[in-house]
Prior knowledge:
The chain is an alpha+beta fold. The protein has helices at residues 19-36, 60-76, 107-119, 133-150, 158-166, 170-177, 181-190, 193-207, and strands at residues 2-11, 41-47, 52-57, 83-92, 126-129. The model has no long low-confidence stretch (mean pLDDT 96). The two termini are 23 Å apart. It has eight helices and five strands. It is globular and about 60 Å long.
Amino acid sequence: MSRRFILMADVIKSTRMNASRLMRDFKEIASQINLQSPEAFYSPITITLGDEFQSIVHSLKSGTDAILRFEEAIINKRKDFKLRYALNFGEINTPINKQAAYGMLGPGLLETRSFLARMKDSRDRFFFRLEDPNLSEKMNMIFRLYQMVVDAWRIKDFPVIAEFLKNKDYKAVADKLKKDRSLMWKRERSLNIAAYITIKNLISKEIIPYA
């Protein structure tokens, strides 16, 4: 028996989407995250039910990095779906499957799946249940702020947002997209890019290092 960080997610309102396109897009991003950061996972992101994935990550940082990478990959690839995520520090009773997140048993896996199910009755897309209740509360609060920013974005804005995530200078973004600089200055503010960057920095520099 061991305690590990278990990361699961499912697609919101997947039954309303084109199933074949969703599966293709979901697999594409899951594969990308696994290839980008294999060191983050004991057991890689594995799609289990078509619209759900599970994985075992090394740490809280690995889990939050995977979440943020997934969210930004959706923007960069202009995909039209959103996920709910649950990151739980729970017990696994069987050996960790390092090839795919299949064939493992333990109360931690059941708990994480139940957290996802309960989230369907709330507006929250992110839930953390960690060993330290105070840290769990901090993570849940900061990701509510994160959600407030990103859920206001629309898919038509993703090309502009993707450029701002690569380059913080609105002038460079305007030149890259061949847009008016004044317009991009306004878009930077209306899209709350500075708030997004601040929240990411709070997660990576103020919370995670002291977790």
